[in-house]
Structure formats: C-alpha cells, structure tokens
Design a protein that fits this description.
95 residues
Length: 95
C-alpha cells in the first residue's frame, strides 16, 4: 500500500525524468529505443567527459567552459534522478 508521500515523490521524480536529454530524444523518436542507441549514448557521454577535461585545461574560451559546465550539471542531475527512480519507484518483478 502506497502512502500519500510515496505517491507524491513518485510523481515528482516521474516528472523530473523529463530533464534528461535521453528521455526527450527517445520519446520524440521511439525507434531509437534500442540497445545500440543506449550504448552509443553512453559511449558518447564518456567521450564528451574526456573531451571536457582537455577543454577545461587548454581552452581559453569562457563560453565553451560555461557550455561544458551546464551540460555536465544536467548530466549529473539526470543520473541522480534516474537512479532514484530505478531504486525507489520502479515496479519490482514478481518472483
């Protein structure tokens, strides 16, 4: 039995998942919901994080730094929201 608080937070985190670029892209183009796209998305974010190290070290363009900071902040927020949804609110399979 769900209490009001659990239902409330489930709705809040369900709405917050729309902050994710991944969620927006896969909802707009449903045929992209494949394992290949997910793997490419993860690999692309990994490469972007390594690239941001070099941008932070060698680039002298402050707008580029601000762009990296904004994207990385959204990405960290996205990961936190996704993990909270999976750990607390996703239905568990019946065994």
């Amino acid at each position: 039995m769900d209490s009001f608080i659990v239902a409330f937070w489930a709705r809040v985190f369900s709405a917050l998942r729309w902050v994710s670029w991944f969620q927006l892209i896969t909802s707009a183009v449903p045929r992209l919901r494949t394992f290949v796209f997910v793997e490419l998305w993860v690999l692309g974010n990994l490469l972007a994080s390594f690239l941001s190290i070099f941008i932070a070290r060698y680039a002298y363009v402050s707008m580029l730094w601000i762009g990296v900071l904004i994207y990385s902040s959204i990405r960290v927020f996205e990961i936190i929201i996704y993990q909270i949804n999976v750990l607390l609110f996703e239905p568990r399979p019946k065994s």
